[in-house]
Design goal:
homodimer, 342 residues, alpha/beta, 434 Repressor (Amino-terminal Domain), Rossmann fold, 3 domains, six-stranded mixed sheet, 12 helices, elongated, DNA-binding
Chain lengths: 342, 342
DNA sequence: AATCGCATTCAAACCGCTTTGAATGCCTCA
DNA sequence: TGAGGCATTCAAAGCGGTTTGAATGCGATT
């Protein structure tokens, strides 16, 4: 059952039927009702493909998921980010298009999505420093929202980000207040923007108390369990081992905990740990009592906000760059305590 | 740049250009090359919307990701499964459409995908016992592949699954061979098909040695870190605590390890643990030496296989139900040892 | 020289909707 | 009575491809 057929049954032109169903004002109310009834009766559903071609809108949003070619790693926060964004899309009748792409091949995919007219807008994931994608998107003229920011990018753009600098600054200050002086950092890869900002926050807090960051107890790596373990072992076997550590993710924190326990130490007593908690649904930081003291910010909520913002840009409800900075909470768990005396 | 324009530049008809690009045989080779060169030069990409309308094919595959309404949990294996499937799709020019849906609302979404003509086929995730979606898909006549199986479904259907029963049977036997007699199970939710099969394998192995499964040391829950911890604490505080545990996921295993260590026990000495390892990219089971003894099967590979199978069904390269049972490896790590004498 | 077959190419219809510009009918007002 | 205005409906032209059926040109065959 298509529009033409339905129109014939009603003895109306396709034009009128289309207008009746799409709520145009120039249709007689009686006619509109007749059409609506027939549409219901014959179970008419307009063909999406035709609508898209006719209107020129894709009614779809693209998410390009870069897979680190180096280690084939998929960022675990995507699942929850996308869950949040997906809610918003389906509420608004948009589809979500996912492209999984080796991260050395992203530009081609964006260009293709654009020229094929497959999407009306795009979410940029995992921005790096001076990320070239921002210039690319701007040049292509596709509405886009960045999840995170790209330090060094001259152009204005829309983004949703957590205040990573502030979060890690506060976390560091909290450790300093507990008396810690030797505080290590287990960071993500430091060409990722969020990692740069976290490091900045950490260094700023130390500097403010006249402490210098010690590269020997700062690491930067993929945020996996194994990397957390590896860096943990390396730092904790040093004679001048840190008494506290800042960790960029829950998963890394689990690896670190393994290292701590393997070294016969106790987390929260011998070594204090603060992680960043994205509130991944399958990896909650404890239930009533948090396992880790953490800077916390829901990545699912970020997904919702970014999707909302993007739809605003696509539909023209908003123009020009929009920015949203979410603050992370600092929640106190069992993994921190005063500097051990000894 | 569209087809008409490109044709004009080449001084050819749209027909010929279209055929040249789509590899039809009736085009002169010289012409084909000329067209290909021009397409490259002008960066021509056929408009997806138009192709879809003209051919009636969506050139897209749907993945419906159910989000557990109870706890809002996104299954962490999706990310890697989708990474695997996505590779296959993009190699074949298909798009991947993701719908994130509360799990009580799935049917409507499938019907909609179908009637809107948004996809050519669908992957069914996380099948449950007697899963109604199989009958639904069959009735709607959409090609589909199930990731997993649905015990109790009478209809034939295509699937890709791990031999979960066999994996857990072997794992249990391995523990029995190490002298363990009191072996617990930390399973996923037991309306999920894979969980039913794992339990079956575990019970079969016990029964074969004349042992009965003890419900007091069997749990079934969401596969989160917290649930692993909770079940671990519960079982390990029993006077007749198990000396070995089978765990349905790496993440749960991490929670269990936390419980073990908190109880002052040592994993691999006081308590043996075998997990199931999906080889999630961000959660590798150790690097050279596995942390956990594990039944191992790559979910990313499963994603590739399922996608391949689905495309075969869509294009008609395969008809009728196809089945693929992947065997899990049993890899020995540091989390198992002989039953402690005491 | 006329016919045929083959390799190429093309014009036009079509996919199913939206949208523009025009037409129709009826009522109102001068 | 005729013009103007308004409400309503319609025919036809897109959107950008694919596909059908016909046309063209040319060498080979009779």
């Amino acid at each position: 059952m298509n529009l033409k057929e339905l129109a014939r049954k009603l003895d109306l032109s396709p034009t009128t039927v289309s207008r009746a169903l799409n709520g145009y004002p120039e249709v007689n109310e009686a006619t509109r009702e007749r059409v609506a009834a027939a549409a219901r009766r014959y179970n008419y559903k307009p063909n999406t493909r035709a609508i898209r071609l006719a209107t020129g809108r894709a009614m779809a949003v693209g998410h390009v998921i870069p897979v680190a070619t180096r280690h084939e790693i998929v960022n675990p926060v995507f699942a929850d980010f996308i869950a949040g964004a997906g809610e918003v899309y389906s509420r608004n009748g948009y589809d979500m298009l996912l492209s999984v792409v080796p991260d050395d091949n992203e530009e081609r995919i964006y260009r293709e999505l654009q020229s094929r007219g497959a999407v009306d807008g795009v979410i940029i994931h995992a921005p790096r420093m001076n990320d070239p994608r921002i210039a690319l998107m701007t040049e292509m003229g596709i509405p886009f929202v960045v999840h995170g920011r790209a330090t060094g990018s001259a152009l204005p753009y829309s983004w949703v980000d957590v205040n990573n600098r502030r979060a890690f600054q506060r976390a560091t200050e909290f450790l300093l207040d507990l008396g810690h002086r030797r505080i290590g950092l287990l960071n993500g890869l430091e060409f990722m923007d969020f990692a740069i900002r976290r490091r900045k926050g950490y260094e700023d807090a130390l500097a403010e108390r006249g402490l210098a960051a010690d590269p020997a107890i700062m690491s930067s790596d993929e945020m996996t369990e194994a990397a957390g373990y590896r860096a943990g072992i390396a730092m904790l076997t040093r004679p001048d081992r840190p008494t506290a550590l800042l960790v960029s993710s829950m998963i890394m924190g689990l690896g670190l905990r393994r290292a701590i326990e393997e070294r016969g130490l106790r987390m929260g007593r011998d070594v204090s740990v603060i992680i960043h908690d994205d509130e991944l649904s399958y990896l909650r930081n404890g239930e009533d009592v948090p396992i880790f003291t953490a800077t916390r910010s829901s990545v699912r909520e970020a997904g919702r906000q970014a999707a909302d913002m993007l739809l605003d840009l696509i539909t023209g409800r908003q123009t020009g760059p929009v920015e949203l900075l979410l603050e992370a909470e600092l929640i106190i768990g069992q993994s921190t305590g005063p500097r051990p005396t000894s």
